[in-house]
Fold this sequence. Notes:
By secondary structure, the chain is an alpha+beta fold. The two termini are about 40 Å apart. About 20% of the residues are buried. Helix content is about 20%, strand content about 40%. It has three domains: about 55 residues; about 130 residues, CATH 2.40.50.140; about 100 residues, CATH 2.40.50.140.
Amino acid sequence: MAERVEEIFQALVDAGIGEDELMAQVKEKETEYQGFMTKQAILYLIAKENGVNVDSSENSEILEHITEEVIDYNDFAIPISEITENMRNIVIAGRLTEIHERREFIKKDGTPGVVGSIQLCDLSECIKVVLWNDQTEIMDNRFFQPQEIIQVIGGYSKKGLNDKLEVHLGRQGKLVLAPKGVILPEVKQQTISTSTEKQFDIIPSKHSIEELYNKEGFIRFVKGIIQIHDFKEFTQKSGEKSFLLKLILSDDSSSITVNIWGLKAVQYVKILENGASVKLINVVVKENSYSNEKEISSTKNTQLEII
């Protein structure tokens, strides 16, 4: 891995990017992505932004997976119920169920401040998210309304009033309103309110495989019957071995290719049989750039249940 980082770094320098300028770009992206992206991935992203080709085999599906140029925060998302005290770099998504009015206060240094808060709920739990000063500006957006999906990136957890866990945004943290690809299916019916006591219902959502062809991004789960299509071992640029398990997932509506990467591929190929009914949890739907077909890919949080 270290050799590959040095190799890409040198390729960027050879392409005319000064070392000081390159280090500044790396530092900027490390700050932007808050530790979610490796240095190698950052250098790949910088290379792409500067039009520098650092790969020799562009037509490899495996290379596309390894060198994903833009981070998908959904890979780092956790259920709200898994949040514990003093966690950092939290990524969660949920439906906005309560909006609390902002209030002004005077900081210890005598300058004015603003604080606001909201409640987010997913399938597992609800939690209060606290916003400070400029972070509250998103609350002025006319689309910032109950029932909307919100993604929290770069949060940290602490105990607040009555020792209840809260999520606060770090300095580089952010809220994303209606994030692309984030879907919250089968949310239980519940009443949600704002300070004006307006009532809404959260509408359950469920997707057949046919519907996935019109979507892209993170989905909580999908069910179907599998056929094992292929299993192979390959070598990453770091020299490490990895694995790919290809499945065909089908239901009454259609079928779709599923790519399971890494050690999960080894784990699942040992227990799966053709014709098994399964539930895939925390996966991503995206288009294969070579076949132009939608596929399902595993993330580090993917689980497979035989049902």
